[in-house]
Amino acid sequence: MKAARIIEPDKPLELHQVEISDPTGTEVLLKVVSTGVCHSDLHLWEGGYDTGDGFMKVTDRGVKFPVTPGHEVVGIVEKIGDSVNDVKIGDTVLVYPWIGCAKCPTCEKGDTNLCETPKSLGVFQDGGYAEKVIVPDYKFLANIGSVDPDSASSLACSGLTAYTAIKKALVNNPESILIVGAGGLGLMGVQIAHHMAKCKIICADIDDEKLKTAKELGATDVINTKESDASQKIMSICNEKGVDSIVDFVNAPPTVKLDLSVVRKRGNIILVGLFGGSVDLPLVSVPLKAITIQGAYTGNYKDMVELIELAKQGVINPIVSKHYTLDEATGALDDLKNRKILGRAVINP
């Protein structure tokens, strides 16, 4: 089968013929229909993350090159191992890629996405930038029903991450939510917040076209953060009290600085994006304002199933604006890096 592989960081992906074995035991072999192009793929391709104090290599986290990226995978079940239940040949399924060790307390609780020794598909083992992929256990598959495969692919990561973050944002019963970033995650976050929250939904970005889309998807207010008075405008929308919950899908120094300037007393800041860098945190403001700062990293399998159900109901509709073939994988990552993609892009092998 053909697979687009990262041989080494920052080099064009190479299209290789790769042998793939028949599934055994609980394994399932999928014919890949659609694979989302995610910012996490971009960081994998670049070889790591800017931590603010240096560069954290993905190889230091256990990634081994060459690797086939792609963790947002929809495929058709082609072959199954002899211990597989609940799925059958011909089913169209979404892969839950956040596979753990299956032994630690976190995995036993079902939160395999938070396992300290992860085996995530498309990161630590070969993923969906390929014609076929092996999933190690059928329990990581979910039937998508009538949901469009291209749209469904993003539910495994960007949609799942947005869903988890918005649920965290609702814990303090907000009168207002600020969503920072109107990319694939942010636009999904707007849709989910519009469905789940009865409050003001403010979306902030530097791109007017993306902000227009956010407004169409349910944002009550939009702010272009290129404007010098962006923080004042946000405060005005919130009656000068500040924002109850902020979900930062960028998580860059300028956006976190904005978050801290507009968060309300008893407010909640959820940092999601992996842009990187560092900020000066006015420590005294944390206890004086009793604010909470927390991270959100995808969600568990149960969350993904809930999200698929919302898609089946038409509550959310992931935006897919570009399609690529396997031999265009490098171009897809370049376009994502250069902000040329509205919503989501997919690779159709």
Automatic annotation (TrEMBL):
GO terms for biological process: protein tetramerization. The keyword NADP does not apply. Keywords: Metal-binding, Oxidoreductase, Zinc. GO terms for molecular function: adenyl nucleotide binding; alcohol dehydrogenase (NAD+) activity; anion binding; zinc ion binding. Its EC number is 1.1.1.1. InterPro entries: ADH-like_C, ADH-like_N, ADH_Zn_CS, ER, GroES-like_sf, NAD(P)-bd_dom_sf, Zn_alcohol_dh. The keyword Oxidoreductase applies. It is an enzyme of class 1 (oxidoreductase). Residues 8-347 form the Enoyl reductase (ER) domain. Transmembrane segments: none annotated. Its cofactor is Zn(2+). It holds the Pfam family ADH_N. Belongs to the zinc-containing alcohol dehydrogenase family. This is NAD-dependent alcohol dehydrogenase. It comes from Candidatus Nitrosomarinus catalinensis.
